[in-house]
Amino acid sequence: MPTLLKVNDLKKYFEVNKGLFGRQKSVVKAVDGINLDVIEGETIGLVGESGCGKSTTGRLLLRLIEADQGEIIYKGQDLRKLDNESLRKTRKDMQMVFQDPYGSLNPRLSVGEIIREPLRTHFNMNKEEQQKRVKELLDVVGLNQRYINRYPHEFSGGQRQRIGIARALALNPKLIIADEPVAALDVSIQAQVLNLLKDLQKDLNLTYIFIAHDLSVVQYISDRVAVMYLGKIVEIANSETLYKNPQHPYTKALLSSIPVPDPTVKRERILLEGDVPSPLNPPSGCSFHTRCPFAEQRCKEETPSLLTVADQHKVACHLVN
Amino acid sequence: MNPVLKKQQTPPVVDLNAIDNIGEKTEGFYKVSFDKLRKNKLAMFGLYVILLNIIMAVFAPLIAPHDPTEMFVKNRLEAPSSQFFMGTDEFGRDIFSRIIYGAQISLKVGIISVGIGIFFGVFLGLISGYFGKLLDNVISRFMDVLFSFPDILLAIAIMAVLGSNITNVMIAIGIVSIPIFARITRSAVLSVRESQFIEAAKSTGVKDIVIIFRHILPNISAPIIVQSTLSLAFAIIAEASLSFLGLGTQPPSPSWGLMLNTGRGFMETSPWVAIFPGLAIMITVLSFNVLGDGLRDALDPRLKKD
Hints:
Chain A is an alpha/beta fold. Chain A has ten helices and twelve strands.
């Protein structure tokens, strides 16, 4: 399968001013050197705790935030080097589904207008053609065509998320970056939206980058999963491999925190102590060593790099490599 | 058996068509807001007075019993009577007719000067709030400079430069009301700019200009509408003040401020010459203010029922 998107050493540091008059400048390393190959037609899950940089990564890929360093190669060209006009045109191929179904739809536009907007922006269609396409899209995401003139506040969270998906689909994108698309929904609705996303992928040959913190959701939808910790990918593998045979201690701890709906099953839980260290002042060496139950002296000094341990399975840990 | 229980057991009849039709007609934001405004009696009183004012201004020649500049030399400084409802001034002109014609001047000055303020202020606020950085700094500092002058003083200074006539009154008051609109718009833009739907629009490649006018402006209309009613009140006062000071409308135009000024000299002998134009100013300004307050409540999304 060909690679659709290649990310090389992507970095984003936010400057934070501290102290009186902001004289002390410090840096938050939100995304600190990410390498990722996105293969056409796959779903790649991006998981991690709050603040680990997964949403920032998604936004960097679409250049909604400008990265500080690195390359985002799509169709042989570096997105970071595109001027505004060609970027606007490339965005047609890459769309985003947002987390908050309430905040991501303009409350003053009707559903039809919301979905029509990308069409108006990129295609030379007349009003009837646009209207037809909007109705088609409503059908595709499982909403009644009658709703076309309704306003967002008249819908439930799940329906709104469907509207957001329809908007993302309007341009026939190749890649969809879904930033926690189901985190704000009820569990029953989550399943519906996830299944919708899966069906759409099959029908339209979409590639997803699926950002989430819910591990079972990611397991359900992803072909490959990348685990992030403090702005870095610590482990990446096929979904099945990762869930059955996690290598990185952080992944193990994360997976052991998934609740099992069976009280008789005894599991060994790895409890992590303390909080995620502040990204303002990340630990030396392996950024996980402060909480790692297996940390050695070496982990405090050397930063582990992401190395292949098995087929398509990469881990950044001294103990594994 | 309990009849109430039995009643509950019958399944409710639901007209599926009726449910489906809910989607056809939806209540827009302004309709909902107006329904809320209608419940506010004070604000509606303000609205009615303003409408009355507008009717007065538009149909002045039909309503006024006399020409506003016609002098009844024999009836100078006459107390209110059935011929002159509000008495006459020192030249024998009918005060009631002059007040009706004065509404034309007040409203014209109010609407045009606030229009100038909204046009430039909202535009500057939109671009400084949306683009930020240096542009924002330059615009905001310039607005701060304008803000640091007392309103009336600034208007007087502009009038002194431009010369006193009614067009310049409107320009001066318009310039004075720019900074408040710029500031209100800018702060509203800042609160909307980070919304996800703006990010969504950007991610689909929508142009900045479309984002500003299609996504941001409709979402910040509420504070601008509220401010425009309050600014209208200010503009009417400012016109009256400038005319009172002799810088605005020139005699014999029936400006309320001008009438107040000339009436001042007859306060002890013929108080009606000053009292009626004063009342007209007060009631009109008060109406705009209560309407503005009512609109503020009606347009506040946090107070929304649903």
